[in-house]
Amino acid sequence: MRNLTMPDGPQIGPPPRRQTSKLPLAALLALSTAVFITSLTETLPAGVLPAMSGDLGVSESATGQTVTIYALGTALTAVPLTALTAGWRRKRLLLLAMAAFALANTVTALSADYPLTMVARFVAGVAAGLAWALLAGYARRLAPVHLQGKAIAIAMAGIPVALSLGVPAGTFIGAALGWRAAFLIMTGLTLVLLAWIVLAVPDFPGQRAQGRARMVRALVIPGVPPVLAVTLMFVLAHTILYAYIATFLDRLGMGGATDRVLLVFGLASLVSIWIVGAQINRRLRALTVAGTLLVAVAATGLALSSDGAAPVYLAAALWGLGWGGVPTLLQTAAGDAAGQAGAEAADSAQAMLVTLWNVAMAGGGVVGGILLDLAGAAALPWSVPLLLAPALIVVLAARTAGFPSVRASGTPDAIPPAAGMSRAERDEAQPAPVVNT
Question: Is the pTM of this model over 0.90?
Answer without folding.
Answer: no
